[in-house]
Specification:
Layout lengths: L1 H11 L3 H51 L8 H8 L15 H16 L3 E7 L4 E4 L14 E7 L2 E11 L6 E9 L2 H52 L15 H50 L5 H31 L2 H4 L5 E2 H15 L4 E6 L6 E2 L3 H17 L6 E8 L3 E8 L21 H6 L6 H11 L3 E7 L3 E9 L3 H13 L8 H4 L6
Helix pairs in contact: 2-4, 2-5, 5-6, 6-7, 7-12, 9-10, 10-12
The structure holds adenosine-5'-diphosphate (ADP) and magnesium ion.
Magnesium ion binds next to helix 10.
Length: about 525
């Protein structure tokens, strides 16, 4: 029930694509609106200024035509001047040149013919003596020229008023009033406004579609990535990877990272399977041998002391092998986490090397051992003592095991100020160059049958490598086939300060784990 709700909730969520498209759409829309608004307002203010000039021009034309009158204006004075069409060729005033007169006439005609302009002339007392068309504004007498926007039936109009003076004096002979209805202006205003709104809507649509397409393009790798993750989580073994893209951005980095992680996971799984396969293969042989002997005994052996003895001995040998194999596998898995379980350990490498060396000398009297110890005083490394011992035993055990003809092992101990090196050299069969890296792999033996004969499981060097690297050390090998090998480990030397610090830490700390008891009864330490 709960999950049902959750999934519907999930489905209803908004995809990144839509968010992106809407986000950019809104942003661009706002900017677009502001820009268009500014354009619109400056465009209309230019238009309005034009209308304003037209109104002033009309007032100018009328006042200049009528200011020649000496007495107060009457309709008889005004009519012939403002309706020149009735007598267009007669110069009204001989004192003015014809050309100028005609110019005035043209201006008057144009002004009075303008649909938007209502030009009215009033006498001194305020009665209308001329009107080009019905003036919707009532008369107001004014002391000086004035021009203002005023409201008329819900319309904004320009009203200009001016007194008409007698030429050259300050005597008022009448008034002129021009009302500009601004019809053209409002028409342009509306038309431009609607064009802009349509543009805005088209722009909004275009930007949303563009944003959506762009977002789909940019985010396409995400769907590839999530498809890959889904497949990988359904089947961790699947070889599906995020398809490589030619783009080079954060998402392609992410895809690459994911692919690398999946590869690594695959490798781990493969290794794991390989390990399980190897282990069962290794265990199958001793189990089969023991089973064979038991069946033999079961059928005929019970009464035959010779068969009985042989079978018991063989079974015991195989059991021992199995025990050592199980022990080594345990050591291997423990070696993988030494850095967690055995921190803060301090060991004198000089002492441990000397001890192991002496033990080997004792156990293998047929071998010639030589030790070249360059360390003058105890030298401390951060490694659990038993682990260092185990590593040395693995290396020396191999040196002894793989030297048939020249039974000589040379151990040397040196330091270069930063690191201490132990090398174990033998003069035995050596390792071919192509196998040099593989000897550190689990269960790898150059000669499986012979190594088995000698009780080797192929785990020794992998345990040693893991242990040393777990303590940030380094293992290396040099070898020449038929001439012998040198295995070397190198570990960081602790200075006095580091050593005291670690010893203090260790003293205050609970032992992180009971000492590895099983390590002690490892076949290698026997
Ligand atoms: N000193 C050596 N000289 C020659 N070959 C060696 C030496 N040490 C290791 N090897 C080779 O590396 C393989 C792996 O070694 P190791 O991991 O110790 O396994 P094991 O000794 O149990 O076989 C050995 O089987 C052997 O073939
Ligand atoms: Mg070995």
């Amino acid at each position: 029930m709960m999950t049902d709700k959750q999934t519907t909730k999930k489905r209803r969520r908004m995809s990144l694509k839509w968010k992106w498209a809407l986000g950019t759409g809104t942003g661009v829309f706002v900017i677009f609106t502001i820009v268009l608004g500014l354009l619109f307002s400056s465009f209309t203010s230019v238009l309005l200024r034009q209308e304003r000039r037209r109104t002033t021009d009309a007032i100018n034309v009328v006042t200049q035509r009528l200011n020649d009158n000496v007495k107060d204006l009457t309709s008889d004075d005004v009519e012939p001047v403002l309706r020149p069409r009735e007598n267009p060729y007669l110069p009204h005033n001989p004192s003015k040149p014809d050309q100028q007169h005609n110019l005035y006439n043209d201006a008057i005609i144009r002004t009075l013919a303008n649909d938007n302009l209502a030009v009215s002339v009033y006498d001194r007392s305020g009665s209308e003596i001329f009107a080009s068309r019905v003036d919707p504004q009532p008369f107001e007498s004014v002391g000086k020229r004035q021009l203002k926007l005023s409201h008329l039936n819900g319309h904004v109009v320009y009203v200009g008023r001016a007194p008409i003076y007698q030429h050259g004096t300050k005597r008022v002979v009448g008034y002129v009033q021009v009302t500009n209805q601004l019809n053209g202006y409002w028409r342009t205003y509306q038309r431009t406004g609607s064009i802009l709104i349509v543009l805005l809507l088209i722009g909004l649509l275009a930007i949303s579609v563009f944003g959506y397409i762009l977002a789909s393009y940019f985010l396409r790798p995400i769907s590839d990535i999530s498809a890959t993750i889904t497949k990988a989580s359904e089947d961790p073994q699947s070889s599906t990877r995020v398809p490589e893209s030619r783009r080079n951005d954060e998402l392609s980095d992410l895809s690459e990272l994911l692919n690398r992680m999946l590869d690594q996971m695959q490798r781990y799984i493969d290794q794991q399977q390989q390990f399980v396969g190897d282990v069962s293969h290794e265990l199958r042989t001793p189990v089969a041998i023991i089973q064979g002997h038991m069946e033999l005994l079961n059928r005929w052996g019970k009464d035959d002391p010779e068969v009985l003895n042989e079978s018991i001995q063989a079974s015991l040998a195989e059991t021992k092998r199995m025990k050592s194999l199980v022990q080594e596998m345990l050591d291997l898995s423990r070696a993988e986490q030494v850095e967690i379980d055995f921190r803060n350990q301090v060991t004198d490498i000089k002492m441990v090397v000397n001890q192991v060396f002496n033990n080997f000398k004792m156990i293998h009297p047929d071998f010639t051992f030589s030790l070249d110890d360059d360390l003058r005083k105890p030298t401390y490394v951060s490694m659990f003592r038993d682990h260092l011992e185990q590593v040395l035993i693995i290396l020396m055990d191999n040196a002894v095991k793989y030297s048939q003809t020249r039974k000589e092992v040379h151990v040397s101990l040196s330091e270069d100020g930063r690191n201490a090196q132990v090398s174990v050299q033998d003069f035995g069969e050596g390792i071919a160059p192509e196998n040099m890296d593989r000897v550190f792999n689990r269960f790898y033996r150059v000669d499986k049958a012979r190594s088995r004969e000698k009780g080797g499981n192929g785990l020794g060097l992998s345990i040693a490598k893991r242990l040393v690297e777990g303590y940030n050390g380094h293992v290396s090998v040099e070898s020449s086939l038929g001439h012998g090998s040198i295995f070397q480990i190198s570990l960081h030397i602790l200075n006095d300060q580091e050593r005291h610090h670690l010893e203090e830490l260790q003293a205050t700390q609970e032992p992180s784990k009971p000492l590895d008891e099983t390590l002690k009864d490892s076949n290698l330490l026997e």
